[in-house]
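Researcher: Quick test of sequence recovery. Tokens follow.
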């Protein structure tokens, strides 16, 4: 039993074909976000199509989130599934709290922060929670 768990990484042993699809989705998300930001900044889109083009990165992110949930739920080790789902719940709470805080500051007229700050905060909270939970489970 010890030999099976020895060297088992916190992110699990995900087959390459699954990791390839996740990496492609991450690349598509980054590329679509950059493309939409550039198109919106340089006003290359007609005003009627702006909402429809602006939603493209969100759709790719939803596909990425669904892919991550599918990968996490397919782990063979129940501890890894629990670890990742707890980290995702923590990242969700951090993002929700951060969004509420930024909205409150904007309504008070104190600070107008861009919303893309929340993406980095959620990713860091998720990665940090995985590291802390994996360390605690040792």
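Model:
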């Amino acid at each position: 039993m010890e030999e099976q768990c020895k060297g088992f990484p916190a992110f699990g042993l995900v087959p390459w074909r699954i990791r390839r699809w996740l990496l492609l989705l991450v690349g598509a998300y980054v590329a679509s976000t950059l493309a939409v930001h550039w198109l919106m900044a340089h006003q290359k889109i007609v005003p009627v199509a702006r909402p429809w083009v602006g939603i493209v990165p969100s759709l790719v992110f939803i596909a990425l989130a669904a892919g991550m949930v599918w990968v996490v739920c397919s782990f063979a080790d129940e501890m890894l599934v629990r670890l990742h789902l707890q980290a995702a719940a923590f990242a969700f709470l951090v993002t929700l709290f951060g969004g509420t805080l930024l909205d409150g500051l904007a309504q008070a007229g104190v600070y107008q922060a861009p919303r893309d700050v929340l993406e980095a905060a959620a990713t860091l909270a998720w990665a940090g929670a995985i590291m802390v939970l994996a360390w605690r489970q040792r």
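Residues 78-108 form the longest helix (31 residues).
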